[in-house]
Amino acid sequence: MELFADVPQGWRRILEACETEPWGKRLFAQVEAAYEKNDPPVYPPQDQLFTALKLTPPEKVRCVIVGQDPYHQPGQAHGLAFSVLPGTKLPPSLRNIGKELLSDVGAALPEHGTLTPWAEEGVLLLNNVLSVYDSAPNSHKKWGWAELTTRLMQSLAEQPQPIAFVLWGREAQSKGALVGPEHSPYPRLVIQSNHPSPLSASRGFFGSRPFSQVNEFLTANGAEPIHWNAKQG
Questions:
Q1: Comparing C-alpha atoms, which of 20, 17, 15, 10 is closest to residue 158?
Q2: CA 233/CA 225 separation, integer angstroms
Q3: What DSSP assignment string belongs to the chain?
Q4: CA dist list (Å): 180 to 92, 146, 188, 214
Q5: Which residues are catalytic?
Q6: Burial class (CB in 10 A: 0-12, 13-18, 19+), 131
Q7: Half-sphere exposure of residue 90: CA atoms within 13 angstroms, side-chain side
Q8: What is the pTM assigned to this prediction?
């Protein structure tokens, strides 16, 4: 399917398998129709729908950070959870991630808010739902995306490298029971806390120290830590 023509083979085989099932056929047909009509507009742009998968193939994944669904205002979403394109005002959740990052490991987000450097470091920035209508958060929640992203995350069980799963908020935590160490013979870590949204960050996100926990887990299992202060351009 054209939607995932450029997706790495390791992910592509999961998408193609989902496409053979009734729910997957409905999902991809609905997504393609929404992009074709584009009224209301759909985010991220169609060619950026699978940016997270394109930048972080399964064999490179060292950490998975799960978001809810894409930002729903023009010019924000580009296929990486919590990330925005250069020139876009940082959303409140991303600013709070930056505060915790600085407090936890003394690192700073890129000023432009684009988290591509993390993706290239092996951080899969995956939303639970991968598309959204303009100004309508969670508008594609019931389309079947959650089943697809569950399949993607479960497929990581066969990857031999250590992988940490960082689950912020209820939507992300719904994946927790499916990806823990009991589901893989390889080293796995699950970190859960409240979402970095201003509505909940002060109730368990701030002070949760996810970034240092990920790196402690990786180094304890013989892997390189994530360079959370990676810069781009």
A1: 10
A2: 22
A3: -GGGTTS-HHHHHHHHHHHTSHHHHHHHHHHHHHHHH-SS-EES-GGGTTHHHHHS-GGG-SEEEEESS---STTT-SSSTT---TTSPPPHHHHHHHHHHHHHHS----TT---HHHHHTTEEEEESS--EETTBTTTTGGGTHHHHHHHHHHHGGG--S-EEEEEESHHHHTTHHHHSGGG-SS-EEEEEE--SSTTTGGGTTTT--HHHHHHHHHHHTT-PPP-TT----
A4: 29, 17, 6, 14
A5: 69
A6: buried
A7: 16
A8: 0.95
* Cβ-based neighbours of 167, under 8 Å, separated by 6 or more: 66, 173, 175, 176, 190, 191, 192, 193
The pLDDT tens digits of the residues spanning 56-112 come to 999 999 999 999 899 999 999 999 999 999 889 999 999 999 999 999 999 999 889
Q: Can you tell me which residue has the tokens 């129709």?
A: 33
Q: pLDDT digits over 3-58, tens only?
A: 788 899 999 999 999 999 999 999 999 999 999 999 999 999 999 999 999 999 99
Q: Give the CA distances from residue 120 to residues 16, 20, 54, 75, in Å, rounded to whole numbers and listed in that order.
A: 24, 30, 10, 22
Cα–Cα dist 163/165, whole Å: 7
Q: How far apart are CA 187 and CA 80, in angstroms?
A: 25
